[in-house]
Structures are given as C-alpha cells and as structure tokens.
Specification:
By secondary structure, this protein is mostly helical. The chain contains eleven helices and no strands. Helix 3 runs antiparallel to helix 4, helix 4 crosses helix 7 and helix 4 packs antiparallel against helix 9. The radius of gyration is 19 Å and the shape is globular. The N and C termini lie far apart (57 Å).
Length: 278
C-alpha cells in the first residue's frame, strides 16, 4: 500500500514539480535551519533562538538514534519509484528527518507566536515538506507520519526542559537531554550523529558562557543588524570551510567542526557583536 501511494503521487510528476518540491524539501535541511536560527538569535529574539536551537538540534539526534534502532530501508531502487535529491537521503528511512525537523521548526514558531497566520503557514509547510519527501521518492508514508508525531512530542519535551532551566536558573537541567546524546557517541558511530552531537555540545557550552559572561542584547539599528548578520554568517561559512580542509576526514573531525559552529553562533558571534558593533 505504501509503495502504491508513492507511485500514485509520482504519477503527477513534472519538471516544474521536481524543482518546486526539491526547493520545499530544502527548507527541512541544515543550511536553512542555520540561517534562520542565526538570524533569530543574533537579530530578533535571543531566548527564542536558544529554544528553537535546542529543540531542533536535540530532536535531530533523537531522529538519528531512532533511524539506527528501527533500521528500515528507504524506497530507493524499488521498481516504479523515481528517487531525486539522493544526497539528502542519508541513513535509514524511519522517521523522516526532513519532516521531523520541519515539524519541530514550525511547531516552535506556532508555540512562540500564537497567531492564526502562523498556524496556517506552519501546518502547510509541515505537510508540504512531508509530501515533498514522498514526491521525491526517498521516504514511505509511515516515515512522514512518524516524523510529524515525534517532532511534535519532542518540541514540547525540549521546550519544557528549557523553560524549567530558565525559570529555576539551573542551566544544568538541560543535561537531562544532552548527556544521553553524548553517551550515544559510544554506540552510534555515524558521521551525521557526530556532527549534530558536536553542534549540540557547542551550542550548550556557548549558552552557558553567553548567559553568564557576555549577556548579549539583540536590539540594534537596522544597519547594524544587517552588518551582524553578514559578518556572523560570513565567518561561520569560512570556519566550516577552513576546518573541513585542514582537519582529517573522520567522525571526530566532524564532531569538532560542528562543535565550533555551535560555539560561534551562541557565544563567539555575540561577543564580537557586543564588543565592536552594538
């Protein structure tokens, strides 16, 4: 039945649809999330940036762990199914990482903004990203459903723990969800898992340092906000590129490289902004 559903969806494929649904699928990927989280954290709402970042990052680790545990194959290569954008179809099939990520992303916005328009936009985007993964032939319907359900549940879990840490002023409470993920490095020796775990650790340590020593204020003039965004993203891209070239190819290098990314977003860039721009 699931294969028949994918075949039915792909019966309406077209060159235009291929472009549109690949673009929609890209809103569930790393580049899009880094851009949005950085913009929100540096220029809009620091607290929401933290909350969104923790939900997405820890949720992505949950997704990777579940993929390894369930270990279900993708529909790629099955007769009658055409698969596109295969470079994003890494790991196993259940649950869909793009769908779960999109769900956590938009659910976070819905919880934060609480306006009718964000409900419409958010729910529409979650459905479209999920549909795009079926259209592209890289997931089964059950993967999409699982991604949505797990994404919603994890967003509330992550937000609850973050809010408790904020209210009690005990940031160590976040270790409840971070420590198990670091322990997972012993058992899940995969490139993606190590990269995300590195980002989580960097993001968390940056959170501890920024809230205690930097105390970054988001508000600034529009020109300075633009300068912060261009400078911050420019250095971030440079750091990722340089470290990828100079470090040996290994999961440990991936861990360290993304650790620096998390650290830069939360404390490196805010320190530079506060010292030289704001």
């Amino acid at each position: 039945m699931q294969i028949d559903i994918i075949r039915f969806i792909q019966s309406i494929t077209s060159p235009f649809g291929d472009v549109i649904f690949q673009l929609i699928s890209m809103t569930g990927e790393e580049t899009f999330y880094i851009l949005v989280i950085s913009t929100i954290f540096w220029c809009v709402n620091k607290k929401f940036g933290y909350k969104l970042g923790f939900a997405l990052l820890t949720g992505t680790i949950v997704n990777n762990a579940l993929k390894s545990i369930v270990n279900s194959a993708r529909p790629i290569g099955i007769s009658g199914i055409r698969s596109l954008r295969l470079e994003t179809a890494t790991g196993q099939s259940f649950p869909s990482g793009h769908t779960q990520g999109s769900t956590m992303f938009w659910a976070s916005f819905i919880i934060q903004i609480k306006k009718k328009w964000i409900y419409v936009v958010g729910i529409s985007m979650i459905i479209l990203v999920g549909f795009s993964r079926l259209y592209l032939g890289v997931h089964y319907p059950i993967d999409i459903i699982g991604g949505i359900v797990i994404g919603i549940i994890w967003t509330f879990i992550s937000n609850y723990i973050f809010d408790c840490a904020q209210k009690t002023r005990k940031p160590l409470l976040l270790l409840i969800i971070i420590l198990p993920m670091l322990i997972g490095l012993i058992y899940l020796r995969e490139k993606t898992y190590y990269a995300i775990a590195g980002t989580v650790l960097g993001f968390y340590i940056g959170y501890l340092l920024e809230t205690k020593y930097v105390i970054y204020e988001v508000k600034s003039t529009k020109l300075k906000q633009l300068i912060k965004l261009v400078l911050g993203l420019g250095i971030l891209i440079t750091l990722k590129g340089v470290l990828k070239v100079i470090l040996p190819i290994s999961i440990y290098s991936d861990f360290f490289r993304y650790f620096i990314v998390g650290l830069w977003i939360t404390v490196g860039a805010p320190y530079i902004f506060k010292r030289f721009i704001i």
